[in-house]
Amino acid sequence: MDTSYLKTLQKKTCFNRDDLFSAIKENGIVVSASMFKVLLKKLLDTGKIVRVGRNSYCVVDEQVKKYHYNYSELANEVAGIIIKEFPYLQFTIFELVQLNAFVNHQIAHNVVFVSVEADLRDFVFDKLKEKYPGKVLINPTTEIYNQYWSDNMIVLEKLVSEAPLGTDEKWHTRIEKLLVDVYADPIQKETFSVSELPIIYNDAFECYVIDESCMFRYAKRRGIEKELKKYILQHTHVTFRKG
Fold it and tell me: Considering the entire predicted model, what is its pTM?
């Protein structure tokens, strides 16, 4: 089906389902309510549009695109072990070098952060330390982290309930989760200069589509929703699509 109607919507910061339906009709295309739902899903699945909030979307273009990251061999190996041994476990992986897409001072030494459901965290720790002896820490304090830090270390942390899961692979860290965790997680904050934090938010919002509803819903689960919003508004030039 012709998607030229997206050119009109591309000019908008964001649009809702009614806007999309109107643009389709104005383009001379007749769709039923059920067909519209199918079309909306197809547009999302193919990446032509992306969700930026509840009933809010934007058109993807060369300037603002969907976030994607190619994980390291170590991160993929760790994920494979967990999936094999604990096939029904929910977990996410974030690795420190992911931040190199956003920071000025590039991070040379990697650390793999694995967020795991609390009830099974000890079992995952036992399994991983068999494969990586002396390289795995479980829920460390910043003091313990700094004392035992080594390159390619693995840090096990608690997965916050209702944390957003990846879209390509569930264990991938969505950019919305990344942007909350770099502010909320005291250990991750230890790994880069605080002066880099505004740069991370500016670059992320400038280059990638952010689901703001998802991000602040997760920030609320971490107890920093208002604090994070205030920080971004005061220390960056980010303009929220949702206002």
Answer: 0.82
